[in-house]
Design brief:
Elements lengths: L16 E15 L1 H4 L8 E13 L5 E14 L5 E16 L3 H30 L12 H22 L1
Antiparallel strand pairs: 1-4, 2-3, 3-4
């Protein structure tokens, strides 16, 4: 009988790990333009929400800063007058391990913002309510679609730049 030893098991990659070390408001601005101008009435608002994402490596190994940047502008549907403007930069500090280098960028700009978003939604709701308006409950943001759109936009900008040069 031949001595059969099991073939060496393929080396398994450890599962990705993410820990939120801290999260905080980096910058917040709320301008109640309608109140400043003495506007009255219950104008039906047209709300425009712009979302930006940023991620960068921290000096400490495996730590990253991820920022969600919101710019929310409410205008009156009747006369296009600004009602309020809210700007929020919300930051998270993450410890991330076992994510391959080629997957780190999308991980930072998709998974990390998903972890921060419920807190951002709550802050926006509280600020708009405390500012004298009904609480604004943001719709869930599709960070995968947002990431893909940004990658496409950057590729198009680079292609346009290459044709100019």
């Amino acid at each position: 009988m031949a001595d059969e030893t099991p073939a060496a098991a393929p080396e398994q990659q450890a599962a990705p790990q993410m820990k939120v070390l801290a999260q905080f408001i980096r910058d917040l601005s709320f301008e109640n333009i309608a109140a400043q101008k003495g506007m009255q009435g219950n104008a039906e608002p047209d709300i425009n929400v712009q979302v930006g994402l940023d991620a960068k490596k921290r000096p400490v190994e495996n730590q990253y800063d991820v920022t969600i940047k919101l710019n929310i502008e409410a205008k009156s549907k009747a006369d296009d007058a600004k009602i309020f403007v809210l700007e929020l930069d919300y930051n998270g500090i993450f410890h991330i391990e076992n994510v391959p280098d080629n997957q780190l960028h999308p991980f930072l700009l998709i998974e990390c913002p998903r972890m921060l978003f419920p807190f951002v939604r709550r802050i926006v709701s509280d600020i708009t309510r405390d500012g004298g308006y009904p609480p604004l409950n943001l719709e869930t943001i599709d960070f995968v679609s947002l990431y893909r759109s940004e990658i496409t936009r950057r590729a198009q900008a680079e292609a346009a730049q290459a044709t100019v040069s």
